[in-house]
């Protein structure tokens, strides 16, 4: 049976609309965003943390979220095809090193391309081990991360160490990629944000942060999110690839080359993680430094899980983690202290929802945690520096804990597949 015929067959047997959750309409999504921004504005006014929604805060959060989002997008590609990619961190490491190595010699855009190739090489290795040789996906991913760490450390000793301005632990300076700012509009939004009006200034800060000092590579990364959604959910190629993660035996019986699609997905996964690594070296810092990924590959994987293996949800998770990281870097203890109030208010809303659902025990526990947070906020002016440093990772754990009940990963994710099972 041809692949085009198999695609029609799978589409005809797909679940009909109405059997799952209702999809949110655009007006509802905009209303949720407006309510969230109003809550942030309320917290800003009460706490006096005016930097909470400033242009600089949003711009910094976006830059910090992009590498995490690219890693999460890479994980989404692999896991939608049924391959767990715990090696995203290692593929990001390869992207940072190869991107910097090529970038300082031949320019930043060449560095981006070579960084993508470095990550793709790690993805190819992961595909060979998991798809062809049936190695446990977790073991393979951990091995790739260890291998990438050792390899880049070894290569730095006779490349960056011998280059002018470099050392065994960092590369020479890399030329910057052009950044854009919308003239006039950016200044006006910045002035609006500086007035600190309720909601209006916060909206100005958010919009201003999205159009101020924006790297061209950031724009490319943002376009990859809707591009991935369209490719995987609106094309026959995407239907075949996702069928490999849901039921590869049925997909093979309908003529899909499961091995081919798994290989494509995992190599693309590595390439996206490599792009995230190149972004770190070329855009975020302008230099390669040993250990600069800082676990962002794992946080990207957490963002993907939080997003329920969907591009939009993954982007939201990456934005949340980037925002928390930016709070730590910019305002430190003051901004993170304000987030205690925000979290306490959100938990009150959760309590109301749990009472509505008649989950009384959970409501009592949640109310107790909310009361503790309100008390902590009221009795202190700032939080300890150790908590500030841990804030992004605490946010990761909290988000995963809250979202765990609604998750549904691809059914065949992580399961070994043997060619010929569907014949």
Structural commentary:
It is a single chain. This protein has helices at 3-12, 26-47, 55-80, 88-106, 108-132, 137-158, 185-194, 200-211, 216-233, 236-246, 248-253, 258-284, 296-306, 311-330, 333-356, 360-379, 385-403, and strands at residues 179-180, 214-215. By secondary structure, it is mainly α. Strands 1-2 form a two-stranded antiparallel sheet. Helix 4 packs parallel to helix 6, helix 9 crosses helix 10 and helix 13 (296-306) packs across helix 14. The longest helix is centred in the middle third of the chain and has 27 residues, at 258-284. The model is unreliable at 1-20 (pLDDT under 50).
Give the arrangement of secondary structure elements.
Layout: H1 3-12, H2 26-47, H3 55-80, H4 88-106, H5 108-132, H6 137-158, E1 179-180, H7 185-194, H8 200-211, E2 214-215, H9 216-233, H10 236-246, H11 248-253, H12 258-284, H13 296-306, H14 311-330, H15 333-356, H16 360-379, H17 385-403
Antiparallel strand pairs: 1-2
List keywords for this structure.
2 strands, globular, 71% helix, disordered N terminus, 423 residues, two-stranded antiparallel sheet, single chain, mainly alpha, 17 helices
- Whole-number radius of gyration? 23 Å
Helical percentage = over 70%
Q: For the terminal residues, how far apart are their CA atoms? A: 11 Å
Strand order of the largest sheet: 1-2
Label the overall shape.
globular
User: Could you tell me the number of beta strands?
Assistant: 2
């Amino acid at each position: 049976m041809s692949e085009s015929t198999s695609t029609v067959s799978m589409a005809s047997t797909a679940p009909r609309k109405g059997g799952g959750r209702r999809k949110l309409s655009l007006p509802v999504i905009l209303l949720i965003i407006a309510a969230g921004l109003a809550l942030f504005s309320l917290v800003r006014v009460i706490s006096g943390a005016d930097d909470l929604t400033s242009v600089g805060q949003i711009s910094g959060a976006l830059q910090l979220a992009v590498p995490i989002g690219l890693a999460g997008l890479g994980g989404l590609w692999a896991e939608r095809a049924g391959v767990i990619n715990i090696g995203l961190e290692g593929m990001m490491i390869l992207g940072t090193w190869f991107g910097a190595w090529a970038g300082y010699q031949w320019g930043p855009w060449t560095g981006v391309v070579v960084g993508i190739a470095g990550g793709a090489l790690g993805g190819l290795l992961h595909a060979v081990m998991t798809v062809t040789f049936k190695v446990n996906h977790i073991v393979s991913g951990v091995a790739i991360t260890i291998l990438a760490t050792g390899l880049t450390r070894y290569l730095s000793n006779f490349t960056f160490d011998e280059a002018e301005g470099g050392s065994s632990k960092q590369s020479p300076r890399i030329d910057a990629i052009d950044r854009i700012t919308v003239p006039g509009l950016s200044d006006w939004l910045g002035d609006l944000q500086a007035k600190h009006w309720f909601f209006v200034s916060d909206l100005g800060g958010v919009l201003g942060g999205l159009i101020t000092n924006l790297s061209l590579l950031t724009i490319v990364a943002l376009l990859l999110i809707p591009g991935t959604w369209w490719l995987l959910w609106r094309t026959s190629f995407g239907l075949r690839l996702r069928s490999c993660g849901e039921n590869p035996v049925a997909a093979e019986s309908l003529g899909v080359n499961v091995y081919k699609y798994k290989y494509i997905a995992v190599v693309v996964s590595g390439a996206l993680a490599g792009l995230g690594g190149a972004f770190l070296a070329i855009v975020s810092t302008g230099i390669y430094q040993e250990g600069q990924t800082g676990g962002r590959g794992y946080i990207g994987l957490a963002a993907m899980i939080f997003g329920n293996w969907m591009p939009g949800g993954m982007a939201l998770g990456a934005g949340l983690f980037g925002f928390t990281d930016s709070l730590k870097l910019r305002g430190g203890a003051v901004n993170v202290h304000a987030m205690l109030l925000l979290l306490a208010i959100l938990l009150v809303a959760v309590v109301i929802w749990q009472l509505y659902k008649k989950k009384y025990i959970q409501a009592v526990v949640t109310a107790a945690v909310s009361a503790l947070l309100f008390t902590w906020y009221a009795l202190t002016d700032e939080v300890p520096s150790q908590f500030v440093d841990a804030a992004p990772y605490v946010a990761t754990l909290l988000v995963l804990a809250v979202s765990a009940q609604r998750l549904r990963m691809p059914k065949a994710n992580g399961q070994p597949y043997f060619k010929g099972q569907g014949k």
